Amino acid sequence: MDNITQSSAKQQPMSDIDVDDNSWHRVSPLAILYFIEKLFLGLLNNIFYMLPMFFVLWDEIKANPWIAAGIIGLIITLITVFAIWSFFVFRYRLSDGTVEVKSGIFAKKHVNLPFNRIQNVKIEQPFYYRLFNYSSMAFDSGGSLNQEARLIALPLAFAKELQQEINAFKPASSMSDVESTSFDEDGNPTNNQSANSNASVETVENTRSIGDLVLHGITSNRIYIILAAAAPFVNDIFEFFGDKLEGFGVDIQSHIDNDPMWQISIYAISLFLLVIGIMTILSIIGAIIMFYGYTLSRTEDKYIRRSGLITKHEVSVPFSRIQIAIMKQDFLDILFGRINLRLDQLNAQIANANVSQSGTNKLIVPSVFAYECRDIIAHVFPEHGLHEVAFKAISTRFIIRYISFFVVPITGILSYIAYHNEGLSAWVVLVISGLLTAIVYGRWCRWGYQYNDAYIYIRKGLLGRERYCLPITKIQRITYSQSLFMRKNKLVSLKIYLASGSYTIPMIDEDHAKRVYSYVLYKVESEAKAWM
Fold first, then answer.
1. Strands, E, within 128-270: which ranges?
2. d(CA 56, CA 234)
3. Could you give the domains of the chain?
4. What is d(CA 387, CA 381) in angstroms, rounded to the nearest whole number?
5. First CA to last CA across the chain, in angstroms?
6. b/e code 9-28 from CB counts within 10 Å (16+ = b)
């Protein structure tokens, strides 16, 4: 790559800077916007810990609004100052097949990442970069979070060319040159440019329309998470809306006292449906923002995902890095015949550590049909057969265990309350007990496992279901455990560790578990394939 340029600390023209000049460069001042966003999101992620302070000062703030204005002004000033300071200390250097980044104000950080260690290159375009055709690049080495590097505020053309060079980089050595040389019929050496060009040719594997994204937003609605988070504030919420309605002349208490029960029930159901509708609309909007313009492309050795409405993301994932395939279906997905496919890679734990980036670091294909899902997985895990696996059921002792340790104690406590409190009917206790028992039974029905020469399969769920395909050669560790009661009944729980996380098969026959355990160890040791 010749004369790829970027603004330097001396603000040289772009054409005057060579990436191999072994000098440090400063990024564009647009990087200040990135640091402002990063600091603001960090503040939002920690706002929960600041709530006690606001509760203590709430009365004081209401009496003196200038205090709130002062706090907000101070926060904005600090964020701006630290963003500008972070921009001035940020430096990068590209030389000799290496990317180096210096950053940090109080905790200095110097990352030195050779091209041949970069496993994944991700290009992002937040809306404030898209206006100026700039982007940021994230380099993933497959190691810890502290070993990752990021270049920000780069011209998009520069980022694209740098990405191509990193993907095509080969360690320079005479041995590799000899091994990569081929000869024609006359014995003359030929180059492999055609092979390399074929490896970089992209084929569009899958796209998602707006209709698909709307369906994904509906089926993946996480309203119960929002409702659970709002539960501690339910009284305040009702008081707030009650006061607002009274201001419009609506007396809720009067309606409750005077209206018949069937009419009050209609009000309650209508309110519940309204809340669900609002949350569903928000979920649809979120799905469109995340996956707008979704394109999954495939080259000879990797998948490339491009998506995003406000911030455009481009993630390239080599097939060798994908550790597991997960087919996930909620209840509505099963009803509509759709599947959410997720291909987790080496840095799944790192992605989970950074919640704001977790969605963009995983290869997700939303709301696909079964045949599309099958074909996408087949390029990574040939002959996986995940759609037609005959799963083995786990032991029925699973039902006995959870009924004994959860359902029976809860039923006993509710029965005691009902006996001493006339306000709780025995029928309510029976209904709750029956529902809990049905949940345990439904959970047992979903659990299943199977294995063959190349893969281990796991299935679990309740109303929805998840199916996992684990390549045996990528397993790093496998353990089995027994409690005292499991030992008496000759049952074992297996736990399988991959680079993407751990996966459990609970309460299966001990002899069968030992066969699985022995075969996994034999397969991993005999083939000794790389995890990535």
1. 134-140, 149-155, 182-183, 189-190, 203-207
2. 20
3. 14-168 (no CATH), 202-387 (no CATH), 392-527 (2.30.29.30)
4. 13
5. 27
6. eeeeeeeebebeeebebbbb
Show the CA angle centred on residue 151, arms to residues 147 and 157, nearest 5°.
140
How far apart are the C-alpha atoms of 344 and 325, rounded to whole Å?
A: 7
- The residue with tokens 């009917």 is 425
What tokens appear for 484 in the block? 């005292």
Chain segment 65-112, per-residue pLDDT in tens: 787 788 888 989 999 999 999 999 999 998 878 888 999 888 888 888
Token duo for residue 382: 């040939």
Backbone angles phi, psi at 345, to 5 degrees: -120, -165
As a whole number of angstroms, the distance between CA 387 and CA 370 comes to 8
In degrees, rounded to 5, the angle at the alpha carbon of residue 95 between the alpha carbons of residues 199 and 110 is: 110
Which of 325-339, 353-367, 404-418 holds the top average pLDDT?
325-339
Q: What is the DSSP string of 440-474?
A: HHHHHHH-EEEE-SSEEEEEEESSSEEEEEEEGGG
Helix (H) or strand (E) holding 390: none
> What's the full length of the chain, in residues?
532
**Residue 19: partners with Cβ closer than 8 Å, 6 or more residues away:** 1, 3, 4, 5, 6, 94, 95, 162
pLDDT tens-digit readout, 17-36: 455 557 888 999 999 999 99
Lowest mean pLDDT across 37-46, 248-257, 310-319, 491-500:
248-257
Using a 10 angstrom Cβ sphere, with 0-12 exposed, 13-18 middle and 19 or more buried, the burial of residue 521 is: middle
Instruction: Give the integer Cα–Cα distance in Å for 156 and 136.
Output: 8
CB atoms within 10 A of CB 495: 14
Q: pLDDT for 380-435, tens place per residue? A: 999 898 988 999 999 999 999 999 999 999 988 888 888 777 667 778 888 899 99
Axis-axis angle for helices 261-291, 210-219 (nearest 10): 130
The per-residue pLDDT for 248 is 64
Rounded to whole angstroms, the Cα distance separating 483 from 398 reads: 13
Q: Where are the beta strands (DSSP E) in 132-276?
A: 134-140, 149-155, 182-183, 189-190, 203-207
Global pTM?
Answer: 0.75
CA distance 139 to 166: 10
CA angle 71, 231, 288 (to 5 degrees): 75
Residues 309, 293: contact at Cβ < 8 Å? yes
* Amino acid, single-letter form, for residue 322: I
Quick check: helix, strand or coil at residue 322?
Answer: coil
Burial of 475 (0-12, 13-18, 19+ CB in 10 A): buried
Residue 378 has phi, psi (to 5 degrees) of -60, -30
